[in-house]
Structure formats: structure tokens, C-alpha cells
Amino acid sequence: MDLVLRAALFFVLLYVVMRLIGRRELSSLEPFDLVLLVVMGDLVQQAVTQSDYSVTGGALVIGTMVLMSVAASYLTYRVRRLRPLLDGEPIVLIADGEVLERSLRRERITLEELGAAARQQQIESLDDVRFAVLETNGKISMIERSG
Known about the structure:
Layout: H1 2-21, H2 23-27, H3 31-49, H4 55-78, H5 83-86, E1 91-95, E2 98-99, H6 101-107, H7 111-120, E3 129-134, E4 140-144
Antiparallel strand pairs: 1-2, 1-3, 3-4
């Protein structure tokens, strides 16, 4: 039972940490970030299982993590009020052609990154963008100005 409780605690801790890191960072992992996540996974494994290297212990930990992940997904699907807490909300970065500096600062996105996202969507300049939204998956979607 101790393994299940530690796994549940670390699941919640990792969920909170991933939310704090920010969706933009997670959607565009650099090599160092990937290594850091692997190392973090190993540290969590050591903290959760301690010296229990049994197959049963491993199965309990994996089962607990999977069960909690499915439960979080189910809660997000069934309980509308929990969606912003568990999944986050889209954040408007450009509204009516105006760059919202406060949103950029909050999400740690530079104008250069915003410009790169525009170019990836075949938009030449931020002046051509009517709306830009940082979606919950970390991608930036843009709507061009018409005319």
C-alpha cells in the first residue's frame, strides 16, 4: 500500500510541476529539457519504489500512475469546471491585431517566437495577424486579417 500512496503523491506532484513549467515549453522540448525529464523520471522512480525492485512493486506503481492518469482524463471529460484546472485554458496572445504583452510575459513567449509561429503558418508578419491563441496543447494558432 505504501507504493501506491507514494505513486499517487508523485503523480500529483508531477502533474503540478508540468503545469508550472508551462505548455509552450513542453510543446517544444530542447535536447537538454528532454534529458532533464528523463533524469526527473529516474529520480521519481527511485523515490517511489525506494528499494523495492520487485515485479509486483513495479506493476503497482505503473498501475497507480495509469489509473490516476485515466481518472484525471475522465474528470476533465465529465466535470466541466475542472477543465481549466486540469487542462488549462487557451490564452489570447494577439487580439484584433494588437499583441498582448502581458500574455506573452505570463507564458514566457518572445516576439521572435510569436513571429516564427506566424511564419510557420505562412503569415509573413505579425501585422497580418488578427488573432493568435496559445492552445492548451502548447501550439499557437493564428487567424489572418482579411483583405
